[in-house]
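Page 42, continued from yesterday. The earlier attempt failed because a stray header line got pasted into the input along with the sequence. Redoing it now with the clean sequence only.
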Amino acid sequence: MSAGKSPAQLRLTQIKDILTFSKTATTIPFDPDSTKFPTRHELPQIAGAPPGAAWVWGEDDYLGRLNLLTPTRVKAAAAEVKTGEMVSLNLPLSVPEVPAFHREGFQHEIKTLAENIAYDDLYRLNTQSGTQWDGFRHFAHIASGAFYNNTHGEDIKGPNANHKCSIHHWSEHGIAGRGVLLDYRGYTYKKGIQYDPYDYYPISYEELYQCGKDQGIDIRPQAQGGDIKIGDLLFIRSGFVEAHNSKSPSERAKLATRPHVFGLDDGQRWAGVSQEEKVIDWIHDSYFATVAGDAPSFEAWPSHEAMCLHEYLLALFGIPIGEMLDLEKLARTCREKNRWTFFVSSVPANVPGGVSSHANAMAIF
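This time it went through. Structure tokens are written below.
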């Protein structure tokens, strides 16, 4: 299926590609190795999909933007490994001790097989309690009830449950590529901007642009003259982990157990990216393979818009969301080296039918 273009337009695109040594994605399913993709406002309407859906990788696709992590791009990203330092991006499984949004805390038990000779572990873990990837089964487009690529609740749980959008697809494919950090918290300290990561605070596109500029990065996609490459993995440090570590256990528990209801009256309040149209366009048009932050919600919470960013990113665009990653050492290392790109590797849990996963992520310089 052509991406909303007439035969004449397709022919013109082919000629331009020949002259510019480009490869434009014009036919669905898109070729992941294409060098040019449509903007959000150029997307074709896909039959049976909600308006604005970018279900462009095939009817049986459960990778979404992870398709962009092709061998060609991963090989190119490996050039980011220059000095070999490794930086874990994972909080301990037991952190936060009291998770946000009233989720269950991590439980760890040592099982004795033979005293002083052999032991096992027993884990009980809500994959949303700490450092995580939100899988495509985590959040639907609410108005239509559709998860990514026409997956529905009955596919996830119940007598007809299957493996559509299961997290194990990500594990089998793998996540590896060029990471880009925007240290917004560090930028605000430099500029004297004050806010509380434990309260609603939307980080606008303009603020992210200025943050990138301060770091020497043009956060626009390469197609628009910027530095963001197709398939990059985006990380935004808003300062939640730093704030969390500065509080006492009782303070953290009190804030984590604030009342949780959907809507503007939600007591669960977190700093994160704005849900303005500029941010949505930027994330889509940059063709990030993944986006991630260090707070319990990637977007500023609670949502002040008709649709929350989770609906756009997970259900419509197929972009994995990372939350509560530990970006503290990463930010320090980037600042010390004055380089804000690096190689990233992450292996989600191989759980057929799973919803989400601990990130198991590492940056390598």
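Notes: The chain has eleven helices and 13 strands.
Reminder to self: strip header lines before submitting.
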